[in-house]
Specification:
heterodimer; A: alpha/beta; 13 strands; B: 76 residues; mainly alpha
């Protein structure tokens, strides 16, 4: 009787299997496989499908509540990772995977690629703290590299201006997802750096809003990581949601967990800065005032000293000396004057005694006498001389040879010798003779004959 | 003249530089080891710096400018 085999009901068997599975299997597991027989139940929204590989099939179910979290539309043939737990479906007599998370298997590949890239770049030192540039304390010109149309630009803008309205924002529109996005963001970073002499941006924010891992993938790419690393302008990353971490976050000089936090990372709070300014103003005024008061007190002490109480005393002393000197000088000058006056009077008396006007009269008479005497003397001498002159002239007239000419005589000279002809020997036949008559009339003649008597 | 020149210089300072200068002036004056004449000059400069900083903080255009990519503008 005891050997008699126990007979179970169907439900009992299924229950045993269920308990066995619960005891033996991990409470949660991820299964790699390919979707087949995908069915989405229209009314309930629950999904029924199978995962298969070369050797087998695993029935799966995913409730509508879980399916809402799936970002892609599953199709037969897709390679996926399904996470959930195994349980027995008693009504169907089968065990199945109750899926609560379904990912494309490619995402797993992305995860792997991400980890590999992190290791590679970390080994190269791209994430080193030593390379990170300090952020400017008061950025006034902020460059933002993100999509023109996304929510991120609004979030970043608001988060900055709420704290720091004086900043000027410069948007460099770039695609933030899809093929080539990373290259374009990297190119934009290098472009801004190249042109920053003109743009003079203090800090850059690179980011985008939340999305699927694929959407954020551009921010994991090497080309962007290197562009961030090479940027001379400090770079703040602001990518996705809080939980998302990208390579851009690792390599950037600072990380904002989301675009809405960009302002907190990038800029100071204007209220704090203003109160710091007010504080400095107070300290400056207080200290300077204190110093002024101190100096004022010193000045008061100085002013109380005798020099300042009676500052004119030395001057007055000097003035008195001058007065004394002046008095002394006056009296000595007066004395000198009196002496000179006395001397003058004495001299005047002496001069008066000489009677100069009478002396002058006598001398005048003498002078007249002398003058008359001189006049008559000179007249006599002149007459005498005139008579002697006339007599001499008369004698001289009788001796002048030319006065003989008046009486009809003439003077003959040889033209050749210019000498007066006195004898026949003075001339030759043929000589020319010049005969001078009265009043210098001349006759020229030729000697034709000489007659000696 | 010198004062005017100084003020002109201040108006060209960046906010960061102005704050830096201001901080150094405050600490110099608080140490109290500078002559009165200098400290009055420093006080005036400090006040001018504060005014300059407040002026910068009051600017709020709140307008996003767009950086045109250079390649495009050159191509066209």
């Amino acid at each position: 009787m005891q050997n008699k085999a126990r007979i179970y009901t169907v439900s009992q068997v299924n229950l045993l299997v269920k308990v066995a599975l619960e005891e033996r299997l991990p409470s949660r597991l991820t299964v790699r496989g390919e979707i087949s027989d995908w069915k989405l139940h229209k009314e309930s929204g629950h999904c029924y499908f199978s995962l298969k590989d070369e050797d087998g099939v695993l029935p799966c179910v995913m409730w509508a509540s879980s399916f809402r979290g799936v970002k892609f539309a599953p199709e037969d043939g897709m390679a996926v990772l399904a996470t959930g737990h195994i349980d027995v479906y008693m009504a169907g007599g089968k065990y199945q995977l109750y899926v609560d998370k379904l990912e494309l298997e490619g995402v797993g590949a992305l995860q792997l690629a991400f980890e590999q890239m992190v290791r590679k770049l970390a080994a190269e030192g791209l994430f080193d703290e030593a390379h990170k540039k300090p952020l400017p304390a008061y950025p006034m010109r902020i460059g933002i590299l993100t999509s023109e149309s996304g929510a991120a630009i609004e979030d970043i803008k608001d988060s900055i201006w709420n704290r720091w309205p004086c900043a000027r924002l410069f948007l460099y529109p770039v695609p933030v997802q899809g093929e080539g996005a990373a290259q374009k963001i990297a190119a934009a970073l290098r472009d801004v750096n190249r042109r920053n002499k003109k743009l003079s941006l203090d800090v850059l924010i690179v980011g985008r809003g939340g999305g699927s891992p694929e959407d954020l993938w551009a921010f994991n790419e090497e080309v962007l990581a290197r562009a961030i690393y090479d940027s001379k302008i400090p770079v703040i990353s602001a990518v996705g949601h809080e939980i998302d971490t990208t390579i851009a976050d690792f390599v950037a000089d600072a990380r904002a967990s989301t675009p809405t936090k960009a302002g907190v990372v990038a800029v100071p709070d204007i209220r704090e800065v203003l109160s710091e300014l007010a504080n400095k103003e107070n300290r400056l005024a207080h200290k300077t005032k204190g110093q002024l008061e101190l100096v004022w007190q010193k000045l008061q002490t100085l002013l109380a000293s005798s020099v300042f109480r009676n500052p004119l005393l030395p001057v007055h002393n000097r003035e008195q000396e001058i007065d004394d000197l002046q008095t002394a000088m006056r009296s000595s000058v007066r004395e000198l004057l009196a002496q000179a006056q006395r001397k003058l009077s004495e001299s005047y008396e002496q001069v008066r005694k000489i009677e100069p006007h009478r002396l002058l009269g006598r001398k005048m008479v003498e002078l007249n006498n002398w003058q008359n005497l001189a006049n008559s003397g000179i007249k006599g001498i002149i007459n005498n001389c005139r008579m002697k002159l006339t007599a001499a002239a008369n004698r001289l007239g009788a001796l002048n040879p030319k006065s003989v000419l008046e009486r009809g005589f003439s003077i003959t000279t040889s033209k050749k010798t210019g000498l007066i002809v006195r004898s026949l020997s003075d001339i030759e036949i043929g000589d020319l003779l010049i005969t001078e008559l009265v009043r210098e009339n001349l006759i020229e003649s030729k000697v034709t004959n000489k007659v000696k008597r | 003249m010198a004062d005017k020149k100084q003020n002109n210089n201040i108006s060209k300072l960046s906010f960061e530089q102005a704050i830096k200068d201001l901080t150094s002036i405050v600490s110099k004056i608080e140490q109290g080891q500078i002559p009165l004449q200098d400290s009055l000059e420093q006080y005036e400069r400090g006040m001018a710096l504060i005014k300059h900083c407040r002026g910068i903080l009051q600017q709020a255009e709140k307008r996003i400018e767009k950086i045109a990519t250079e390649e495009k503008s050159e191509d066209r």
